[in-house]
Structure prediction request, 101 residues.
Amino acid sequence: MDKRIDQIIANLKDVYDPEIPVNIYDLGLVYNVDVDDNDVAHIIMTLTAPGCPVADMLVDEARQSALIVEGVKDAEVELTFDPPWEKSMMSEEARLELGFF
Prediction:
């Protein structure tokens, strides 16, 4: 795996939804991270709800998480609601943190 992808994922684990004390990666909001041959990072992510009041902030922070990685020239974040997010997409650690066991 491309080391840049690993670093982007590590950076995404520092992005938190202000209403939920778990990072967006462990929440299961990030569906895919890739870096193409032109050194452009592509992140496909969702939100816990389509009307999320901090959507713009989370998308921008996800983009910035990729842009700060050495060797990434640009970053694009695609927001999707297909498939819609559900609690089962969270990591085990996130479910423990939020008391979903």
The radius of gyration is 13 Å. Residues 19 and 54 are 9 Å apart (CA to CA).
